[in-house]
Design brief:
EC number: 2.1.1.184
Distance between the termini: 61 Å
Domain Ribosomal RNA adenine methylase transferase N-terminal: 25-190
CATH topology of the largest domain: Rossmann fold
CATH class of the largest domain: Alpha Beta
Bound molecules: S-adenosylmethionine
Family: Belongs to the class I-like SAM-binding methyltransferase superfamily. rRNA adenine N(6)-methyltransferase family.
Organism: Defluviitoga tunisiensis
Oligomer: single chain
Strand content: 15-25%
Radius of gyration: 21 Å
Order of helices and strands: EHEHEHEEHEHHEEEHHH
Number of helices: 9
GO molecular function: 23S rRNA (adenine(2085)-N(6))-dimethyltransferase activity; RNA binding; rRNA (adenine-N6,N6-)-dimethyltransferase activity
Length: 262
């Protein structure tokens, strides 16, 4: 426990979080995005406002959500004369995302909330058209389904294209993180790979297949046919060895031949 903290008191939320303080790096990564003067951008956890300063210059509107009261007070003072920013003193997990307006997200998020934040952004009704989020390289790879697809990657990919927009050096952060960090870029697909009316069945399909295998969903005859259509040669393949495009094909077979839907 730090010497200056009283016994029994909770640390501020930003303790052990990694701040991006180099203006050169922030400028470089923001220039790699599509952020422009027509955009409403949401920043989760603006901290001391280093990134925020760039966003207000580049975008039409900035919504910055900061949970820490001390940082919120500093931010409101720092940006008091700026017209295109609205700062919220709130927990992002409870903050209401725009219901119909188009928006993008750019954030150096707290790593401990990566999964919660990704779920909130990708599972909501009006998801961001694009998002750039710093996160541990390992977590980014898992969301991208590398080296193999996971439940999370299979639930994100039908709606979003994912790529790594930037590989940070650990020295870019203060304090230096103990893991490699990247900027994950998500781009909403104009047409999702799974139509809305099939989504519930798709969710059930991937979670059951990953947990119990394809034989829990298809008869032997149905499975042989589905594998043939998906171009799967090895009959003993495990679900984690299946490629994303093959998952889509297998689900279509399931939808048509097992559920009997068109
Ligand atoms: C990794 S720091 C990044 C700060 C700043 N964006 C930067 O790059 O220097 C994460 C920030 O998120 C804030 N934060 C943590 N949890 C939050 C939550 N649930 N909602 C909103 N802000 C949160 C922290 O207080 C901190 O300012």
């Amino acid at each position: 426990m730090p010497q200056n903290r009283k016994k029994g008191t909770t640390p501020p939320i930003w303790v052990s979080q990694n701040f991006l303080t180099s203006y050169k790096i922030i400028n470089r990564i923001i220039r790699r995005t599509t952020l422009n003067k027509d955009d409403h951008v949401i920043e989760i956890g603006p901290g001391k406002g280093h990134i925020t300063g760039f966003l207000i210059k580049r975008c039409r509107k900035v919504s910055a959500i900061e949970i820490d009261g001390r940082l919120y007070n500093k931010l409101t003072a720092k940006f008091k004369d700026v017209k295109n920013i609205r700062i919220y003193h709130q927990d992002f997990m409870k903050w209401k995302l725009p219901q119909s307006e188009d928006y993008k997200v750019f954030s150096n998020i707290p790593f401990c909330f990566t999964t919660d934040i990704m779920r909130k952004l990708t599972e909501c009704k009006n998801a961001p058209s694009e998002a750039w989020l710093t996160m541990e390289k390992g977590a980014a790879k898992r969301f991208m389904g590398k080296p193999s697809e996971s439940l999370r990657s299979l639930l994100i990919k039908p709606r979003f294209d994912l790529d790594i927009a930037y590989y940070f050096s650990r020295e870019d952060f203060h304090p230096k993180p103990g893991v490699d960090v990247v900027l994950l870029h998500l781009k909403k697909k104009s047409q999702p790979d799974i139509p809305a009316n099939q989504w519930f069945a798709y969710e059930q399909f991937v979670s059951k297949a990953l947990k119990y295998g394809f034989r829990s969903l298809f008869t032997s005859k149905q499975l042989s046919r589905a594998f043939r259509q998906a171009g799967v040669q090895n009959k003993n393949i495990t679900p984690t060895e299946i490629l994303y495009v093959q998952w889509l094909c297998l689900f279509r077979c399931y939808w048509e031949h097992v559920l009997g839907r068109k």
